[in-house]
Amino acid sequence: MCEFTMWRKHWHEDRFFGYQFLNGSNPLLIKQCKEIPEKFPVTEQMVGPFLGPNTSLQQEVQKGNIYLVDYEILDGIKANSEAGHKYLGAPMCLLYVNPINDLLPIAIQNTQHPGPECPIFLPSDSKPDWSLAKMWVRNSDVQVHQLVSHLLRTHLFGEIFGIATLRRLASAHPIFKLLMPHVKYTFHINIAARDLLISKGGIFDQAFSSGGTAIVQVLQRGLERATYESMCLPDNLAARGVEKIHNYYFRDDAQKIWQAINKFTENIVDLYYENDTSVQSDPELQAWVKEIFTEGLLAKQSSGFPSSFHSKTELIKFLTMVIFTCSGQHSSVNVGQYDWGFCVQNYPSMMGKPAPTKKGQVTEADIVDTLPSGIKQYKVVATIHLLSQPAPINTELGKYVEERFTELPARAHITEFHTALQQIEQDIIKRNQNLSPPYTYLLPSLIDNSVAV
Fold it and tell me: Considering the entire predicted model, what is its pTM?
């Protein structure tokens, strides 16, 4: 925690702001910008001074050095007026990887609709203008992180997988044995979240811009955008074009965790399924994946989720996705919440004034009036501190207290899995010796088997 106490002094720096899109509590939104969107009319004249000599915006786009974070999912959703929250933006942020591999913001537009009353803010604007523009991006990131990246794509998907597992697979089924440690405790924590966090009058209603009816709207949009490709880490990284961006420690560590899980599931599937036909002819397995598709994804073909399995390869990938979602993916968006959120300027859960419609009019006093304060902010900090704590029951990834598999080959594969995770742990610790702050959110020793907290 001391590393992040030190970084609190740097919350206003562009390098700190950009770093969080790679290794903060929501490292899932940034994507390579292959063409400047029409709705974000950034020009060479605007950003050229921040790109250095002998280059241009178009050249940097072609080189793959321009990235975009777009919060269009929030467009048109009204803040929770019942709690006195009036303002919820849907900004876009353009970022540039400079020659020393720092990721820096170079342009911010506070809405999805360009025009005279929606200026594009730049690093060359006044300090209050630029600081507040970044805070609006951070406010939107808080909403998307908590409701989509965290709640929907780990907690609620974990619940979908867990319900189907209990309903469709017998306790003696090998896939039930494989998955049960990875869905255990999820129902308990989700019930608590429904009671305390997203219930009517709960913490989210009280202290987040997207409380009240906005919660359901954001979750609905999040589910519409949840595709099988986006839930499978390698496909997700490729689709966002972030395979080569430097200093993306989330990506590097997540890939190692994914690969370890993939090898483990491959070994288990090879042990119990002789060939593709044996997968196709397993009625429980087919009922399980069909229920996830029909009940969890509402049978939407556009989601790309399978409704049946035709091969061992398909099964292995799907099981890897399930286990990674409930373990590594959840850890990446949960463990670091307090590290990045205890500083209100960096984690404004609500905004007290509208986004500026003109440049040069924001003052330091305006920023103070815009940021949340008092009991609401204390509740947010207390909540994310609680959520960042380890699960009350030790459920470390790869350590299975309940020995569901009795066959010696299966137990040997579990040992191999744990050994692979130990090696990943050592690799991350060694890498982190040269990092400040270190990236620790995917240390296997900090990852729970399931969404347990």
Answer: 0.96
